Amino acid sequence: MSATTKDILSRVRMMIPPLLSKFHKGQLGRVAVIGGSEDYTGAPYFSAMASAKLGCDMSHVICTPTAAQVIKSYSPNLMVHPYMRSSPSPSSPSLTTDASTEPHSLASRIIAMLSRLHVLVIGPGLGRDPLMHDTCALVITAARERGMPIVLDADALLIVQNKPELVRGYKLAVLTPNVVEFDRVTKALGIEDDGTSETGRVEKLARALGGVTVLQKGKKDFLSDGEKTMVVDWEGGRKRSGGQGDTLTGLQASDLTDEVHNAFMNIFGEVDVDGDEGDETGGAARL
Ligand SMILES: NC(=O)C1=CN([C@@H]2O[C@H](COP(=O)(O)OP(=O)(O)OC[C@H]3O[C@@H](n4cnc5c(N)ncnc54)[C@H](O)[C@@H]3O)[C@@H](O)[C@H]2O)[C@@H](O)CC1
Ligand SMILES: Nc1ncnc2c1ncn2[C@@H]1O[C@H](COP(=O)(O)OP(=O)(O)OP(=O)(O)O)[C@@H](O)[C@H]1O
Fold it and tell me: Do 181 and 157 contact (CB within 8 A), yes or no?
C-alpha cells in the first residue's frame, strides 16, 4: 500500500461521524437506489445494503414490482418501493394504454419521495428498458433541481451518454464507470483517446461534463472533477465477482450524506493529496 493510500485511510477513519445521542433516525443518511428489474435483483441489493452497512440510517430501493418482491425477501433492513415499470410487452397490448406506463406518471411517485432523501444512486440492475431510462431522466432532473447528490452507475451511464445535458455542469453528480463503461461514455461524447495518461482521460471526461465527478474503476481507481484528481492504488482483493461496483455505489452514497460530507470537507477540504507518485496531484474536491 502506498503512503498516499495509508494517509487517505487514516483520514477516512476520522470521517466516521460519532454516534451522538442527539441524532434521530435518518439524520445519518437517507439513501435511495433506483434500479432492480426483471433480470437483476442483486445489484440494487448490494448497493442499498452497502449503504446500510456503512452506517446510513435509511436505505431504500425503487424498482419494478417483480424485483421488489424478491428484494424484500433478501433483507428487512431495506425499504423497497415497486414504483418502476418496464415497457409494455408487444404481446400485452392492453398495457400500452395504462397510465402507469407513462414516464411522467411513474417519475412523479419517485419525485414525491425526494424531500425525504439525501442521496440517490441510479443504475444498479436498472437494465436498458427505454421506459425505465425515461423515468430516471425525469428523476435526475428533479433531483438536480433540489441539489441532491446523485451517483450514476451501470445502466444509468447509458442515460448520461444519450442525454449528457442531464448532468452537464452538475457538480453533485458522480459517475462511476468501469473500464468498459468508461470507454463507451467517452466515445459517445466524442472524446478522442489521444494517448494521454489515464488520469488525463478521466479529467477530460469530467471536464466534458462540466465538472461532474468521475470515478473510473479498475486496477487503480481514478477520481476526478476535471481539476483535481486522486488515484487509489490499493490492490485490494483479487476476486473480480459481479456486484463489487454496485457495493461501491452504496458506500459512496453514504459518504455523500450531509454529516459525512461535512466531516470529509473538514478533513480533506484544504489538503492536497498526492495521486500517482510523480503524477497529477490534487485534493478531494467533494467526495
Ligand atoms: N447480481 C446482480 O444482479 C448484478 C447485476 N449487475 C447488473 O447487470 C447489468 C449489466 O451490467 P454489466 O456490467 O454486465 O454490463 P454489460 O452488459 O455492459 O457488460 C459489460 C462487459 O464488460 C466486461 N468487463 C467488465 N469490466 C471489464 C474490465 N475491467 N475489462 C474488460 N472487460 C470488462 C464484462 O465482462 C461484460 O462482458 C447492470 O444493470 C448491472 O447493474 C451487475 O452489477 C453484476 C451483479
Ligand atoms: N483489475 C482490477 N484490479 C484490482 N481491483 C479492481 C480491478 N477491477 C476492478 N477493481 C475494483 O473493483 C471495484 C469494482 O469495479 P468493477 O470494474 O468490478 O465495477 P463494475 O463492473 O461496475 O461492478 P459490478 O459487477 O458491480 O457492476 C472497483 O472499485 C475497483 O477498485
Answer: yes
